[in-house]
Amino acid sequence: MSDALTPAQFHEAPGVADWRVTSWGPQACFRAGSLAHAASLLPAIVAASNRFDVQPDVDVRPEAAVIRVPYRGAGRIPAGTPEFAAAIAVEAAALGLTPAIELIQTVDLAVAQHPGIDVRPFWTAALGYDEQGADDAVDPLRRGPSLSFQSIAELPARRGRTHIDVSIPADRALDRVEAALAAGGRLVDDSRAPDVVDDRVPRQPRHRYSRVDGYILLTHGSLQGA
């Protein structure tokens, strides 16, 4: 897709302030007062999908409507997505649905495996997933977390390398990290933290998470040396 967009290009587009790009693609969450209230957004989603040639995933619940535009193999965002996102944001506001950026997230699992051992066939069979690319497995309807299988040359005793990847908006990273640390977590590495400066209060430089993309490594405080 030569006209597909990067996450940065998506975020630069007008009208997408209620949306954030996660590891699965652009996503928005709008709080609702009931299931009927959340479902009232569906006609606009269908109309905008047809108009802008975007195929979203939609999750309608009594608490909220969640809309995602998933990556579909190309790893880039369809060109019509900013216009689609802007149209949905306008309609959500007209319906009294409230954007909830703090609820936007995706969760994936990175599964460690010893060199020469391929556990992906087992997990795709057990979970009913499809293989994707050379190392991944995905829920065919994108409901559960995706899996990536990583060969680890050396696995020290009592130290696992399977881990959970949590993708949230960069401008919400500070709150999430501080909550995890307060709950017994330990900061392992924030040298590649995202670059969106939290503008509420002054922070030490290491805690001013800002790039559009990036990652922070956390573990529970009981896991020393991990």
Report on the architecture of this protein.
By secondary structure, this protein is α+β, with helices and mostly antiparallel strands. It has 3 domains: 7-103, Gyrase A, domain 2, CATH 3.30.1360; 105-158, no CATH class; 169-226, no CATH class. Helices cover 24% and strands 24% of the residues. It has 6 helices and 12 strands. Strands 1, 2, 3, 4 and 5 form a 5-stranded antiparallel β-sheet that branches. Strands 7-8-9-6-10 form a 5-stranded mixed β-sheet, covered by helices on one side. Strand 8 and strand 9 form a beta hairpin. Helix 3 (42-52) packs antiparallel against helix 4. The longest helix has 14 residues, at 81-94. The radius of gyration is 19 Å and the shape is globular. The model is unreliable at 155-160 and 196-212 (pLDDT under 50).
Topology, pairings included?
Layout: H1 7-12, E1 20-22, E2 25-31, H2 35-39, H3 42-52, E3 57-60, E4 64-68, H4 81-94, E5 98-99, E6 106-113, H5 120-127, E7 130-132, E8 136-138, E9 147-151, E10 163-167, H6 173-182, E11 185-189, E12 217-220
Parallel strand pairs: 6-9
Antiparallel strand pairs: 1-2, 2-4, 2-5, 3-4, 6-10, 7-8, 8-9, 11-12
Offer a concise description of the structure.
The chain has 226 residues and is of the alpha+beta class.
Beta percentage is 15-25%
Biggest beta sheet summary: 5 strands, antiparallel
How far is the N terminus from the C terminus? 40 Å
Sum up the overall morphology in one term: globular
- Low-confidence segments: 155-160, 196-212
Radius of gyration, in Å, reads: 19 Å
User: How many structural domains does the protein architecture include?
Assistant: 3
SSE order, one letter for each helix or strand: HEEHHEEHEEHEEEEHEE
Query: What is the CATH C level class of the largest domain, in words?
Result: Alpha Beta
Number of strands: 12
CATH architectural grouping of the largest domain: 2-Layer Sandwich
Mean pLDDT comes to: 83
Helix content: 10-25%
Please tally the helical runs, counting DSSP H or I stretches of 4 or more residues: 6
